[in-house]
Each structure stands twice: as C-alpha cells, then as structure tokens.
C-alpha cells in the first residue's frame, strides 16, 4: 500500500525486530512501520532497542489490539502513531503526511543549524558531509537580506517567511537551489544559493539587476525597506562559504551610504572592513565655530569625511564612532577655550544612533546649528552685559571727558566694532547716548536747583556753554532757561 501511495519511496522489509535493527544499522531510514506481534522481538521491544541505539526515525505501530495499554506504552516509547488493523488507505495517507511534515520540519531545522555553523566558519567535517548530502553544490553564493522592521509587533517573523518564499521562487526561476538560515537578529535573513558546477550563468555579473524587481516587489507588498548584500561565489561547502557570508554582510553596509531597496556587492561598492580614522582640523573648526560661520564648519567636516571615504567605505559603525570621537575632541578644544558645549554627549550619541547617511548628516547639521547658536547666545549675553556696564559707567562719569574711542579702549574693543555693538543693543550711538545722559542730568538740575546755566553745563561735562545750550535745545526743544521757566509754571 505504501509503495502505491509513494512510488518514489525506497522501502526496506524485515521479518522480525532483530532483522529490522540490523537493516537499520546498515541503511538509515526516516520512517518505520512495525507490528506489535513479531517473532523473537515484539514491536514494543523493538522500539525500546531503537531508542537505545539512537536515531531520529518516526515510528508507527500497527496492531490488531485496541487495548489502551498498548497504545499508551507505544506513545511513551516515542511512536508517532498507532494504526489498528485492518488498516485503511486514508489512515496510512494521513500518517504519511504527518511523518513527512515532521521530517521536513526537522530537516529544515537541521539544515538551519548546519548552515549557521558553516556561515560562522565553525563547521566540522561531519557538518560538511551532511550539507553535501542534503544540498549538493557545484557553485554557490550567499545573500544577506536585511529589512527595516515595521512598527507592528510580531510582523518580522511573517515578513521573513514571505521573503523566503519569494526569494526561493526567484532562485527556482534562475535555475538554482536555495536554503535559508534565520539568525537571532529578526531583521536579517541569510540565503545560500547553490547550482551545478556546469551552470555558467550562476552568480552572474548582473545579479543586482536580476534581484532588483524582487526587492521592489517585496518592499511595496510588505511595506518595508529591503536591502540585499551578495557575497562572492564559492565552489564547495567549507570556509569559502563563511568568506562569502562575510562579504555579503559587508555589502549590506552600502545601505548606510547609498540607501535601501537595492542589492549591493562588496566588490562593486568599494567597501572596506578596516576601521575609519577621521581627522578634523580642530583649529579651523574652532575658529569657524567661534565666528559662527556655519558653512565653514560644514565644509570642514565634509572635507574630513571625503578624505576617509576616498579610500573606500568603512563599516558604518566604525565611521560613526570615528566621527563622534573627532567631535568629542573638538568639544574638548572648545571647552579649553571657555566654550563648553551644552549636551555635548547627547550630540555624540545621536551620531552613533544614525541609521543611514541622511540621518547622520542631519545630525551633523543639527549639531552645527546648536553649537553656533549656543556660542552666539553666550556672546550676545556677554555683549549685553558689557553694554550695560558701559551705560553704567557713562551714568557715573558723565561729567568727565567721554568719547567712543575712550570707551572702546576701556572695554577692550575696536572703536568701530564697539560702536556697532553699542548701537545694536541700545538703538543709538555712543555719542548720542552720552549726550542724552548729560542732558537728562542737566534737565534734572534745572528743575531742582537754582544753579546758573554755565554752572550746570560745566557739571555735565561741557566747557562751551553755547554748545551746551544748542545740544539742550535740540534734545528738549527749548533753551535751558525756557525749560526751567516752563518746569516752574507747571
């Protein structure tokens, strides 16, 4: 019956348990049907001996006995099914389907475990032999498939399955075989493609172009960003597979620099595995930051970045770490000059968390804006403080000789810059402010004292009375005497 249901199965026969054990030792099988009643060794004893010997066969008991104890004991010993005679074809079919499903699941798990070891470069000779038996290879290659995880919990497993199905279908269309390994990292999937040795079209130069429609289809269908890295071809199971895996993972790094939804190869993308060493011109950048020159700061970082990338693209983590370390040094340099940057650590962490080149450069631009704004705000506050001090000085020394040049020198500024600084903060010039201060004090004296006009003029810093009167009239619209008279009559 089994031969009719499964013509492609190779079936072995034995007349008793002892003969069956000997046959299994010489010819390992996947599924065993055994009767309870047999000479020399009954079915239950046979299963016990199989368990002692070890093996992964699925065992089905056939018996005319419907007694519960037989079934219970058979299950305890590891039987996967218990068929009562007379045996119906439908029951056998169901049993075969169940056993085949179990075999397929176990085989996939076994292959996944073997693949994990060979991809990691930790395979044993036994692993290689098992892989050669399960997946013969004349040529092969490794694909590293990465997708950006959706926000929906539980989705990555489903997405993995759909990617495996579609890539498996694609590989069949290409005339090659595919097996998959699912690493612990949910967003990553490894595919090993194999073909016969005489398949000259395998791992073609246009692999990226052939995979692009599949990537676009899956990206659109699943709402994900999908990137595939392709390693170099290998010709036998072993260390070359590990090397192909390493190159495929390296190729994935191109996504950071060039974006996802594409297939990359490590050879075509000029990737490199060694560390990146970025050197910023701290002197130039410090001066640019102090002057608030944002374009100069960005250009300085671009130049350092270009110098690193012209030698090939390092791993994103190494590149981000190098950038963060360089910015850290710049922060230290600024701090030494009295410009400690607020939240410096947070900015450096943002660089390290960047998922791609766009995010990283946005983080750099944000950092430049924050740093220059911080220094600009501090400078503005410092300038405000200086101007307030200057105003207080004028208020206290209005009767003395005062001028723009004298005040600029006192506060250690260039005269023209100090004039601009003063006007930006007070909306008036230094000279005008001095005059206004003196006229305010003169007006107060005119209202509150009987001092002569020439005495008041001298007391507010003017030796020339006529000049004082002219300035007073311009400020108040009346001469000092007229102002005193008007004030007295109010």
TrEMBL record:
<keyword id="KW-0238">DNA-binding</keyword>
<dbReference type="Pfam" id="PF00072">
    <property type="entry name" value="Response_reg"/>
</dbReference>
<keyword id="KW-0804">Transcription</keyword>
<keyword id="KW-0597">Phosphoprotein</keyword>
<dbReference type="InterPro" id="IPR018062">
    <property type="entry name" value="HTH_AraC-typ_CS"/>
</dbReference>
<dbReference type="InterPro" id="IPR020449">
    <property type="entry name" value="Tscrpt_reg_AraC-type_HTH"/>
</dbReference>
<protein>
    <submittedName>
        <fullName>Helix-turn-helix protein</fullName>
    </submittedName>
</protein>
<dbReference type="GO" id="GO:0003700">
    <property type="term" value="F:DNA-binding transcription factor activity"/>
</dbReference>
<dbReference type="GO" id="GO:0000160">
    <property type="term" value="P:phosphorelay signal transduction system"/>
</dbReference>
<feature type="domain" description="HTH araC/xylS-type">
    <location>
        <begin position="388"/>
        <end position="486"/>
    </location>
</feature>
<dbReference type="GO" id="GO:0043565">
    <property type="term" value="F:sequence-specific DNA binding"/>
</dbReference>
<dbReference type="InterPro" id="IPR001789">
    <property type="entry name" value="Sig_transdc_resp-reg_receiver"/>
</dbReference>
<dbReference type="Pfam" id="PF12833">
    <property type="entry name" value="HTH_18"/>
</dbReference>
<dbReference type="InterPro" id="IPR009057">
    <property type="entry name" value="Homeodomain-like_sf"/>
</dbReference>
<dbReference type="InterPro" id="IPR018060">
    <property type="entry name" value="HTH_AraC"/>
</dbReference>
<keyword id="KW-0805">Transcription regulation</keyword>
<feature type="modified residue" description="4-aspartylphosphate">
    <location>
        <position position="35"/>
    </location>
</feature>
<feature type="domain" description="Response regulatory">
    <location>
        <begin position="1"/>
        <end position="100"/>
    </location>
</feature>
<dbReference type="InterPro" id="IPR011006">
    <property type="entry name" value="CheY-like_superfamily"/>
</dbReference>
